[in-house]
């Protein structure tokens, strides 16, 4: 296997554009095959029986080879050239403009600060990439090209309809799947291998794109599991958590990203190497332990904590309900469940012995300082989030704040 990888690496260095076109087309085709195999079209037809009665029959469509061919054409001839130009040629040359040339030169000369400079540039590139390309380039381009290749009679109308139906759902899904991976990709992976790594990661993503593009009826109750994973509650509800499966993935990424930032910017020792096991423990805690509990907690807040005062006006009733939810969250969950759960779980995952003594020691040194930090960050933000931010944007807002908070948690956990 190392020999095969070495040969592929050499080929990619010699023929990066040609190789990326081939591999990208293959991965887009693989994504479409997965989408058609696991999530085929299901249509309901009404037929008349011999007795004259009507019944509904579900018909599952057969595998469509032209659809896979269209995905491969888009991947190799459209997506690959633009991706090579953007991710391979343009993005690596972009530097963080908030760092002056004088400071950049000083940081570059210092080996200890060089990694931090690289991290600052990586974060800026990631933000630029995620805020511009998914919503303004990739999603419209994918729909336009795939509709054109399908030879629809009115392609512009079909593209407009598809973008109206699925643009925001796909963009939300993109922000769930890609930022954590792209941070790792831009920071650790050499430039000539980044598109290949993205293509491997994108196999599932391409399946999702193919599914959403070729399936009617998006959202909850559609019966399509992939769609419901990225859908949020409707505007009549105030639940701010995603369905559990997507929440587990995104929370694991956020905890892992926070630990990655903590290790990079605030190492325990100047030349300390990156601790991959520590990062894995953060991901495990976020996805497997905290996400299910947090999912239930937010639903409990929304369903059970309401304003006891009626007939006081919608705005005042909403303000009182928001105040009660924030109070219960910050005075009950944070000090007695959230913070103890984090330190207990992380201590156990580290394998420290004796367990009880290690957990108590961590509580004595970190519980109060973490709680004070929590009260400085979350009450004001959660009030703003619950009261002013529209439902469809709340999760994105929470995710942005969570990256910094998870960095702080990891720092406190691993530094005395």
The parts where pLDDT drops under 50 for at least 5 residues are 1-5, 10-15, 217-242
Helix and strand content put the structural class at mainly alpha
Strand portion:
under 5%
- Helix/strand order, N-terminal first: HHEEHHHHHHHHHHH
Q: Roughly what percent helix?
A: over 70%
Instruction: Estimate the global geometry from the Cα principal axes.
Output: globular
- Could you tell me the mean pLDDT? 78
- Kindly report how far apart the N and C termini lie: 43 Å
Contiguous helical run count: 13
Query: What's the arrangement of strands in the largest beta sheet?
Result: 1-2
**What Rg do the Cα atoms give?**
25 Å
Note down, in words, how this protein is organized.
The structure is a single chain. The protein is mainly alpha-helical and 416 residues long. Helices cover 77% and strands 3% of the residues. It has helices at residues 2-14, 16-38, 65-90, 101-109, 111-149, 155-188, 191-214, 225-230, 244-265, 276-304, 314-350, 355-388, 391-414, and strands at 42-48, 54-60. A hairpin with a 5-residue loop joins strand 1 (42-48) and strand 2. Helix 1 crosses helix 2. The radius of gyration is 25 Å and the shape is globular. Mean pLDDT is 78; it is low at 1-5, 10-15 and 217-242.
């Amino acid at each position: 296997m190392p020999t095969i990888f070495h040969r592929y690496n050499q080929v990619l260095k010699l023929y990066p554009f040609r190789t990326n076109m081939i591999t990208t087309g293959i991965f887009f085709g693989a994504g479409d095959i997965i989408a058609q195999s696991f999530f085929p079209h299901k249509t309901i037809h009404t037929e008349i029986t011999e007795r004259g009665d009507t019944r509904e029959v579900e018909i599952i469509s057969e595998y469509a080879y032209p659809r896979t061919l269209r995905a491969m054409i888009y991947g190799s001839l459209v997506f690959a050239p633009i991706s090579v130009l953007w991710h391979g040629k343009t993005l690596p040359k972009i530097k963080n403009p908030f760092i002056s040339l004088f400071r950049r030169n000083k940081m570059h000369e210092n080996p200890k600060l060089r990694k931090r400079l690289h991290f600052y540039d990586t974060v800026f590139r990631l933000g630029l990439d995620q805020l511009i390309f998914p919503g303004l380039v990739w999603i419209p381009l994918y729909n336009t090209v795939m509709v054109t290749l399908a030879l629809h009679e009115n392609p512009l109308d079909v593209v407009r309809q598809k973008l109206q139906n699925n643009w925001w759902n796909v963009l939300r899904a993109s922000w769930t799947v890609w930022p954590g991976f792209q941070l790792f990709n831009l920071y650790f992976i050499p430039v000539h291998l980044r598109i290949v790594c993205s293509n491997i990661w994108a196999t599932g993503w391409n399946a999702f794109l193919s599914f959403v593009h070729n399936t009617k009826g998006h959202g909850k109750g559609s019966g399509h599991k992939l769609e419901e994973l990225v859908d949020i509650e409707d505007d009549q509800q105030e639940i701010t958590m995603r369905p559990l499966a997507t929440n587990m993935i995104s929370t694991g990424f956020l905890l892992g990203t926070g630990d990655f930032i903590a290790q990079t910017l605030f190492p325990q020792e100047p030349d300390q190497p990156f601790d991959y096991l520590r990062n894995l423990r953060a991901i495990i805690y976020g996805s497997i332990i905290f996400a299910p509990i947090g999912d239930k907690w937010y639903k409990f807040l929304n369903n059970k904590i309401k304003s006891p005062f009626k007939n006081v006006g919608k705005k005042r009733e909403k303000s009182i309900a928001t105040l009660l939810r924030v109070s219960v969250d910050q005075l009950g969950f944070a000090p007695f469940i959230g913070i103890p759960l984090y330190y207990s779980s992380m201590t156990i995952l580290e394998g420290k012995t004796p367990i009880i003594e290690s957990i108590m020691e961590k509580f004595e040194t970190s519980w109060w300082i973490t709680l004070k930090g929590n009260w400085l960050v979350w009450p004001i933000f959660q009030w703003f989030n619950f009261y002013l931010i529209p439902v469809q944007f709340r999760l994105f807002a929470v995710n942005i704040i969570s990256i910094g908070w998870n960095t702080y948690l990891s720092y406190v956990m691993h530094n005395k």
